[in-house]
Structure formats: structure tokens, C-alpha cells
Amino acid sequence: MPDTHQPGIDKEGKTMAAKETRVAWDVLKQFSKDIFIKAGFTPEGAEAQADVLVWANLRGLDSHGVLRIHWYVELVDKGHMKPKPNIRVQRETPATLLIDADYSPGPMVTVMAMHRVMEKARQVGIGWAVIRNTMHQGAMGYYSLMAAKEGMAGINWVCNPPNMAPHGARAAGLHNSPISMAVPGKRHRPLILDMATSVAAAGKINLALDKGISIPEGWALDKNGKPTTDPKQAVILIPAGGYKGSGLALLFECFSSLFVGNPLLIPALQGKPGATTHRQNSVVAAVNIGAFTDLEVYKDQVDTLIDQLKALPPAEGFSEVLVPGEPEDRVHDDRVKNGIPLPEGTVRNLQTVAHRFGLAMPQGI
Fold it and tell me: What's 337's DSSP letter?
């Protein structure tokens, strides 16, 4: 498959080309699954992990795709991520679940949780789960889309130890907690919003490192709280919309971590040992649209809303009006056909992991 090139900036500030190699999505998924099995995952857990990562790559969310593999393996090596966890439902009502993930790989427990809350939503109208002590869950849109595909509304968010400066501060005090929401259409694909509460997700800084390029101004601060465009120095994220992203992130912690007696921000702010070690708490919820209105009428109205918005005159500099999820849908269609582009840094990291486990790299790399 052909290589693609995107412009970058070298260490002297000069424009350079960042080489990217395209790989067929199904080949990349099988390769990823093989790595996770070698790392000790169950076949089901490896399948879930690989599917979530490659789904992100297919939609252009490369910051949450296979570039994460070497980090996941590192987490397993350190004993932080348990490839065969003891996942437990600790509390349950007809509408709610409290799940302790026992430091499970995120997709493994989150897919299970979404299936459980959808089941509850069919019975009582809504299902709401809070997961504590999980590991990285990947692109959160994967899970809200599960609900939309079943004719439901899906919503989920996640919290971690601090990596983002609260509005008005120059030190990390909040996590850039991402949120995703999705609803079904009929003629149109589901509307899906998947966004961090920071200007840019932390994974985009990792992607810039893999591509060898700088990051835009306004994304991050260095360790001293100074703005930086160097991804190697970027350690503190900046909230989106100032006080708006900051406020959302704070309340997400209150609606998840504090709900289950597992605060992530407080111990870190107090400087307790180990408080900044990666771990997550998460909300996963599904709403049965049919409990409130006719589902088919709802889908028709979503389609009409999309049509009316896209019929509006584009602003200067725009060729059309896009709705949430539409750009990613288009990237998905292209990458299913033409393969997923991997930057050189990602390829190097995958080669290191493959060599360790005695696996061959996907054809073409």
C-alpha cells in the first residue's frame, strides 16, 4: 500500500516530511490481538483491546489507536494493568451497577459494563454503571456508539489523576476527562460526540512525538507552567473553553470517583505517594429512548435535524456544515478501503514489542 507524507517540524524548526506507512485494518487488528495474547490477555480480552484500538485508528483517532500498545505492555510489565483481572459487581439495583475492575484492561470491563447497562435500560428505561479501578479505556466513543447501534442513547466519561491545569492555575489539578455521547439516526449514521475537556487530548501529544512534529500553541504547558509547542516538554494540558472545560472536568470527578469512594484528584493534590499512578474511574450509561417517545419517530427527527443543519450556509472558510461524528465517518470509509497510516514513531514502538514477543510485523512494514 502507498505511503503518505504529512508535514512536520524538525529539531531546528525546519519543515520536514513525516513518513507514514499504510496497513490494512484487519491485518493490524490481528497483529494487535496477537501482541495482547502474548502479553497474557485472555482471547476475549485481547479481542476487545485490539478492536477498540483499531476502531480508533479507522476513525482517524490515531491518538487513541495502536500507538498505545507499547504503553499497555509497559503497564502489564509494571503490574499496574492485570491482563486477567477479577472483575466484580459490588453493588447493583434495577438501574445501576458499581463495578470494581481490579485494574482490568479498559475495553474488557467497559464493553461488559455497556452490555449490562443496555440490558437494564431495556427493563427499566435507563442503565447507569460506575466503574472504579480500571485502566485506559481507549476512545470513549466506541462505547456510546454501542448503545446507539441498539437504538439507545449512550453516554460515558472517564477520570484519571491530574494532567490538566484548572482555569486560572499553572499546575495540574484536574484530569482532562473525555466524554462521549451518541444517538441513533435512520438514514444518517449515529450522531457521536467524543471530546476531551482539554483543548487537545493527551494522546495527540503522544502522536506528535511519534510523527516528530511540534504541537500548536495553546495545547499545553511545560513543567514550570509555561506555554510550549514542544511535545517533549508538554506535561500539563489546558482546558477547552477555559472555565467551561475546567468545570466539566471537576464535576465529572464528583459524579464518578467520589460516587464510589475512590477519589483520584484529592490524593494527588495532597501529594500522597503513588497518587499519580495511572488508573481510572468511569461512568457508562444507556438510555432507552423508547421509554420516552416512539423510537422510529425519534430517529426520523434526528435525520431531519441533521439535514436542516447541513442545509445552513457555510461560514467563510468552510465548504460545508458538518455534524459530530461525520468527519470520522469519512475517514473510516477511506481507511477501510486504503489502510491505516502509521507514523514512523509508532512503527518503531510496534517493532520493539513484536521483537520481544517473537511476532512478525504486519506485511508492508
Answer: H
Of residues 135, 122, 131, 90, the one with CA closest to residue 286? 122
Tell me the C-alpha to C-alpha distance, in Å, between residue 159 and each of 45, 245, 256.
22, 13, 8
**pLDDT over threshold 80, residue 7:** no
Regarding beta strands 220-221 and 227-228, do their DSSP bridges make them parallel or antiparallel, or are they unpaired? Answer: antiparallel
* pLDDT value for 357: 97
Give which of 344, 346, 355 is closest to 56, Cα–Cα.
346
Give the residue ranges of DSSP H helices in 141-201. Answer: 141-149
Q: Around Cβ 154, how many Cβ atoms within 10 Å? A: 30
**Which pLDDT score, from 0 to 100, does residue 18 have?**
58
pTM given for the model: 0.91
Amino acid code (one letter) for 154: G
CB 344 within 8 A of CB 19: yes
pLDDT band at 19 (very low <50, low <70, confident <90, very high): confident
Rounded to the nearest integer, the mean pLDDT of the chain is 94
Identify the CA nearest to 8 among candidates 229, 230, 213, 215: 213
Q: Name the 3-class secondary structure at 185.
A: coil
d(CA 312, CA 322): 10
Sequence-distant contacts of 292-299: CB under 8 A, at least 24 apart: 292/125, 295/151, 296/186, 298/184, 299/151, 299/184, 299/185, 299/186
